[in-house]
Amino acid sequence: MSAEYGKDPLLSYNEYLQVRPLLELQRTLSDPVSHDELLFIIIHQTYELWFRQILHEIDATIGWINEDRLFRANHSMRVVQAIERVIVTQIHALETMAPIGFLEFRDKLNPASGFQSMQFRELEFTSGAKDESILATFADDDFAYRKLKERFDGPSLADTFWALLSRNGFDTSDHAARVASIVKILAQPERHENIYVLQDLLIEHDESIALWRSNHVMMVERMLGMKRGTGGSDGVGYLTSTLRKKFFPELWEARTHLTA
Ligand code: HEM
């Protein structure tokens, strides 16, 4: 390829994407190596990369909304929606693992658990579901704690959305007022155009994470039955209790009050 296509003629695909160091990051713990441990690590690392991109788009969305650039905000939420479709179904690749294959190396990763995923918690906090007791579980991990504290203290996507509605003349003073404002928007989609599309993308984000939770708990039960988690919870029982977590409860509730 001729040099004018890029400034560095020596730059290659492998160099640009850092493929060599990337392939050194899958460090198995089982010895002799358990066949399925590589799949287990790659799935988790892929999720963490997608979480990073989702956070990048949500942070951008918050910025665009604050600037009242809703076309751009909606575009970033569309990217989130497309990625979430991938991550909701991606879990099935891990479901192929035989429970006995998982048990071969499960003890080695104890007490590590997805419960400690810093980026999943960033995603929850920044979307609108902040939980001080979860923040406290990161107290011994300085790097994660600082990042999460910043997200805990900063405005979430939900806060940013309600501030947008307030700037546009909607009453957002309390929960009931917010629900009533959403009912007005749902009743007249064309009148509220970009705000209507945004609330639709936000409820879809909520739905996608709920679907992820649901697929994850089914996969966990298929793999472990009712065994305790490596993170110390009772496993399926705990995960089932998280299924109704919502970032935008008002958007869901408004559907109940909408009439023709
Ligand atoms: C064989 C595969 C897996 C098993 C058996 C498993 C099991 C569990 C269990 C039992 C918990 C509850 C906490 C605990 O006591 O450990 C949990 C939480 C969690 N796992 Fe997994 N998991 C698996 C794969 C994954 C994957 C691929 C991800 C992707 C990132 C993931 C992300 C999470 C997250 C974010 C939580 C916290 C959920 C919450 O607190 O709402 N897990 N997992």
What are the main properties of this structure?
260 residues; mainly alpha; Methane Monooxygenase Hydroxylase, Chain G, domain 1; binds protoporphyrin IX containing FE; 0% strand; single chain
Describe this structure in words.
The protein has helices at residues 13-16, 19-23, 37-66, 70-95, 99-109, 118-127, 132-136, 142-153, 157-167, 175-187, 189-224, 236-241, 249-257. The relative contact order is 0.11. Helices cover 68% and strands 0% of the residues. It contains 13 helices and no strands. It has 260 residues and is mainly alpha-helical. The chain has a single domain (35-105, 127-257), classed as Methane Monooxygenase Hydroxylase, Chain G, domain 1 (Up-down Bundle). The mean pLDDT is 96. Protoporphyrin IX containing FE (HEM) is lined by residues 43-44, 47, 94, 102, 113-115, 117, 120, 216, 220, 223-224, 229-233, 235, 238-239, 242.
